[in-house]
Amino acid sequence: MEAMLSDLEKEALRKAWGKHSPTSYAAERIQKVNAGTPTDWGLSNRPPNKAVEPISLAGGIPDVATLPRLDLVKATARGLGFDSDKSTFDQAIAVLDDAPLSYGGAAGSEALRAEIGRFFARDYQDIPGPDRFLLTNGAAGGIELVCSALLDPGDVVVSEIPAFSGSLRTFKGYGARVVGVPMNRYGMDIEALEATLKKLAKDGARVKLIYASPTFQNPTGTNMPTEQRLRLIELAAYYGVIILEDTAYNEFYFGENLLPTLGSLANGHFVITVGTFSKVIAPGLRVGWVTTRPELLGLIVQARFDMGNSPLLHRTLYELMVNGDLKRHLTSMRSLYREKMTVLTKALHEFCKDSVAFEDPAGGFFLWVKLADPLKSREVQQRGLDAGVVFPIGSGFYLPDGPEEKGQHVRLAYSRAPTQDLQLAAERFASTLA
């Protein structure tokens, strides 16, 4: 048996440890950020009133009841070499392919990368091949890899504001100075962006990234017109700055067509696009991707040290795609989320019409709601928790040094809650405003 520490030795270790502050070991850049808010992690703001069964309008999470569990089980079985169409799984197909249970390499499954190109990059003039994709730990993992590859402390990231708080936290965590550009009803204000880039260039700032979610943006739900997208790309090229395009919600369009991504319009020049399976299938899969020009993608691969993602999940997702299950699932989800959006907006107009203002989104998961004076979002949120409705407030998507949030916005996500609960959620929300 190995020797054990005596009580005296344990006490000596405890005292020695007590002489050091844990923060003294932290990297300087980490000391400037916190562990993240529940919104950063896609969760509810805080434990709600346990006396009332809560309805969550918080995280951008797919409808729980419609997650394709059986399709995922069958796809995983096929990926492991079982015939999922048989009555039982007790007879494996004789295969020598152990790829799903081995390491997957820096870029991830080539087959899945090719399929992602065919499906999610179908708006490109020439569909990019697998060499244009890198598989990551969700879109958030893709954003972090980009930051790791491109950002040094003191570099500037220009970001639309409001913006997803988790991304803002990542930029700060890599020591970047985040400069906000306000939004309008069409997305990032392009004139304000041009003025910001011009000033930063005059000041000699080292601007590395422009962060934008042009399609069904989180938290505002705005959808940038094509003309604005082209102007954004022109500005990036003129100033020599890379656009980091977040496409987490692109596939949930309520009209007939999806607007082209920035990456497709520019063919990857000056654009790095990140995407994810978290919204289209389930967040727990934690599989996303980065796509850009191969010469830029190579730099991002150089910043990777995590031994890659799960090849088993990659094979499962590949099977799900080639079998047509993902396409069928997305078709039904677009219809469902359009219905949910309609139910919630109609109920808000009915119960809160004099107290709120918002625009119906053309897709995505969110409503960006402005409260009428003198209502303030933080107090409304607290009373909402007591009433059994959970949602984040607008200030969580802003920077402390501007543009300013005047405490009048909340974000309502209609994606997760059952459709039949959305009218009750609107009634509860209205009761907090009364």
Strands, helices and their partners?
Layout (H helix, E strand, L loop, with lengths): L6 H12 L36 E2 L12 H11 L30 H11 L12 E4 L1 H13 L5 E6 L3 H9 L3 E8 L2 E2 L1 H13 L4 E6 L13 H14 L2 E5 L15 H5 L4 E6 L11 E4 L2 H9 L8 H12 L2 H28 L3 E2 L8 E6 L5 H11 L1 E2 L18 E5 L5 H15 L1
Parallel strand pairs: 1-12, 3-4, 3-6, 6-7, 7-8
Antiparallel strand pairs: 2-9, 4-5, 8-9, 10-11, 11-13
How would you characterize this protein structure?
With 434 residues, this protein is of the alpha/beta class. The chain has two domains: 55-60 and 328-433, Alpha-Beta Complex (Aspartate Aminotransferase, domain 1), CATH 3.90.1150; 72-323, Type I PLP-dependent aspartate aminotransferase-like (Major domain) (Aspartate Aminotransferase, domain 2, 3-Layer(aba) Sandwich), CATH 3.40.640.10. It contains 13 helices and 13 strands. It has helices at 7-18, 69-79, 110-120, 138-150, 165-173, 190-202, 226-239, 262-266, 294-302, 311-322, 325-352, 377-387, 419-433; strands spanning 55-56, 133-136, 156-161, 177-184, 187-188, 207-212, 242-246, 271-276, 288-291, 356-357, 366-371, 389-390, 409-413. The strands form three sheets. It has an eight-stranded mixed sheet with strand order 2-9-8-7-6-3-4-5, sandwiched between helices. The protein has a three-stranded antiparallel sheet with strand order 10-11-13, with helices on one face. A hairpin with a 2-residue loop joins strand 4 (177-184) and strand 5. Helix 6 runs parallel beside helix 7 (226-239). The longest helix has 28 residues, at 325-352. The protein starts with 6 loop residues before the first helix and ends with a helix.
